[in-house]
Design goal:
The chain is α+β, with helices and mostly antiparallel strands. The protein has two domains: 3-139, no CATH class; 145-223, no CATH class. It has helices at residues 28-35, 40-45, 68-76, 83-101, 112-139, 148-154, 159-168, 180-184, 211-223, and strands at 3-10, 13-20, 23-27, 52-56, 62-66, 145-147, 188-197, 200-210. Strands 1-2-3-5-4 form a five-stranded antiparallel sheet. It has a three-stranded antiparallel sheet with strand order 6-8-7. Helix 3 packs antiparallel against helix 4. The radius of gyration is 20 Å and the shape is elongated. The relative contact order is 0.09. This is Phage antirepressor KilAC domain-containing protein. Residues 1-102 form the Bro-N domain. It comes from Heyndrickxia faecalis.
Length: 228
Amino acid sequence: MNQIQQVFGYGMSQLRTVLIDSDVWFVAKDVCDILEVRNTTQAIARLEDDERTMLNIGRQGATNLVNEPGLYSLIMSSRKPEARAFKRWITHDVIPQIRKTGSYSTQVPQTFSEALRLAADLQEEIEKAKPKIESFDRFISGKNYQKMGDVAKILGYGRNNFFKLLREMKILMRDNTPYQEFINRGYFVVKEKPIQMGSHVINKPQTYVTAKGIHYIDKLLKERSIIV
């Protein structure tokens, strides 16, 4: 098993990565420190078995690592406003370069003015992401599931187009309720909602998406290059 270790900085923080058979793994403590997740052990305990591992990576000794799905799960548990910007940086810059070259490199500012320009660019990216970050934060709080229309909005879709897309992907049935398989996986919750029809009240199924389901849909759409 080939191991290539790379260490790079995110702001004032350190992020250590390990490339194992072309798969990128991240040191869990570093990720949690950046995302301000206080209890690393508790955070990774909530991950699936295939999203985490422990490996001796040299002087650090036995170290908890998480892969890409595990990283995204940790991001969803973070309250830090920059969490989504951090995810975009990882997926658009770090991972592609690691896979291509086996390392990560970036231009280091050589002058004070270059450092100011880099800081301004980073702040601009954060400001652009703020509206989506605020909506994203709602998904990981409270009752832990959201209406389909709200999920469509944060992913950049109209409600009807979102339903159509999920039907085409065989996630929703014709009546826009999820197949039982996806309910069993914990991606959706279906509740009966009373609706007044004239003098009668009928119960109509209302579909909600869990935080786990939002992560699953987001991943599917990115894999199909439907969203970036």
